[in-house]
Amino acid sequence: MKPHAAAKFARAALAGALLAAALPALAVDIPAGRFRSVLPPAQGVKEVTVAAFQLDRTPVTNAEFARFLRERPEWRRDRVARVFADQGYLKHWRTHEAPGAALSRQPVVQVSWFAASAYCESRGARLPTWYEWEYAAAASETRRDGRDDPAWKQRILAWYSRPASASLPEVGGTPANAYGIQDLHGVVWEWIEDLGAMMISGDNREQGDPDIMKFCGAGALTMEEKDNYATLMRVAMLSSMQASYTAATMGFRCATDGARPPAGSRK
Hints:
- The chain is α+β, with helices and mostly antiparallel strands.
- The chain is 28% helix and 8% strand.
- It contains 7 helices and 7 strands; from the N terminus they run H-E-E-E-E-H-H-H-H-E-H-H-E-E.
- It has helices at residues 3-22, 62-71, 113-122, 130-137, 150-161, 217-221, 229-239, and strands spanning 27-30, 33-35, 48-50, 53-56, 189-190, 250-251, 255-257.
- The strands form 3 sheets. It has a 3-stranded antiparallel β-sheet with strand order 1-4-7, with no helix packed on it. Strands 2-3 form a two-stranded antiparallel sheet.
- The radius of gyration is 19 Å and the shape is globular.
């Protein structure tokens, strides 16, 4: 192959790879169901009912978020209003609108709740609620609720006990659970739609540094499933956040209401 032809082929291959990396994550149908949440039950109700919804298979990547910024430049780090994102917003990116090739397939982090919500809205979606996220995350590789499986729980705890890495993994590296969802554990924390409901401390002055998990002991005592430590860590992290905060390990994925109609069906 001639040099100029080889170079042209390489550029085309790179462009194709970048385009594939920028495509939105494939959403997965999650059927309706009931489960016991770690959050305190409301009015004596022990189980939570979750309607059918769709959830991204993997967290949103830097490449996907970069494409969003090209369409919505007001969310670039040099333009975003500080009321919507703190000083850490996308601070690790190479430029105001590009993360750098090495980061393309890593989950986007250092984004605020406001920015994550805007991204999902641009796709006609939203952030998942806490109950939706917890419901999906309770599934092991073989069971829709694996929380009573000691081996699975120990593996989840092992993920959470690892020291924070200097570099986040690429998305899609963990085994898919029974629904076909990946990376719900052991990759990044994730924003949820109903963030305000996670303020388990009675004193909002205790909500501080988003990179330091804070947990109110009194709040913990009101929770169910106290042995589900990994999920309680999620609650603790989210309860320490405000909508404008960013953190080096806080990412997100999108959700939509209902399930997709079967192929070939009519609306």
